Amino acid sequence: MASKLKRFFFLILLSALTSSLSFAQDEVELSDIRTYTYLPKCIEKAYMNSDSVRLHSGPIEEINWLRSNRTECEENSAVTRRLSLRLMELGDNEYGDDNADLKVNKKELYRESLKWARIAVKEDTTDDINFENISMAFAANVSVASLKGKAQLADSVRVYAEKAVEINSGNHRAYHILGRWHYEVSKLSWIIRKLSKLVFNTSPSGSFQLAVEYFNRAIALNDIPVHHYWLGLAYLESGKKNEALSQFKYLINLEDDGKYNATFFQKEAKKLLEKYG
To answer: Count of alpha carbons within 13 Å of 259, Cβ hemisphere only?
Structure first.
């Protein structure tokens, strides 16, 4: 009887958590070969070569190139991190379908991404972006993990994002990750939390108020659409409808410069205004 009850709880949890804690990084369109003059010369060259391969041969060939050339530079954690990020991006179509025609295995991509993210952190424990990246890699793996895996991995998303902002309080992406973590975890009902504690002896605890605070901090550092969109959703969940609508109105009135998925967020904001306005 006990095993059947546990299985019943597991199925309830699985349906509730399958799509939780899924994150995506800001998309930057690669219209030409960018320059990276702020980086060490060797890393700058590696990034430009990586961009060139991606532009002319596609994302899979770029990943293969990064695997083969990862250790060419003395300060190679930035190249290792890019390899991890590119693997995540290949499996992530949350805000678009750029890779829809590619046959990819998300679990394998995300698993390898986390492997390289761990290596990048070991290569340089002083770089906040390495910790931001491993936080995202954990989040990606949470999104495709079994329920037990979700329960075991979820808190790592928060822990590594907090480490990133501890190293660099100006990392807007890490604050966004923390906002998303608190938002997603707070949406879980008390029943699901109770079942999670009962079945797996672990239950993450989030706060919509903290989500709002983290998204506002992200906006203060970098005023881009994705932060406003999620701030609006966090306000909605907090019962602050007027504040939420203000964020959505801000988005639809933005001039679309083709960057940061502005078009996507404007369309989503319009839907939410029609629903709640």
So the answer is: 5
CA 38 to each of CA 47, 62, 79: distance values in angstroms, whole numbers, following the listed order? 12, 22, 15
User: How far are the Cα atoms of 5, 106, 193, 215 from residue 205, in angstroms, in the given order?
Assistant: 24, 27, 8, 18
Tokens representing 15? 């349906």
Are residues 182 and 194 in contact, defined by beta-carbon separation less than 8 angstroms?
A: no
pTM, full prediction: 0.82
Domain definitions of the chain by residue range? 2-222
List pLDDT tens digits, range 24-72. Answer: 443 333 333 445 767 899 999 999 999 999 999 999 999 999 999 999 9
Tens digits of per-residue pLDDT, 162-183?
999 999 999 999 999 999 999 9
In the numeric block, the tokens 């799509």 are attached to 19
Could you say which architecture CATH assigns to the domain 2-222? Alpha Horseshoe (1.25)
Please tell me the distance from the alpha carbon of residue 85 to that of residue 52, in angstroms, as a whole number: 17
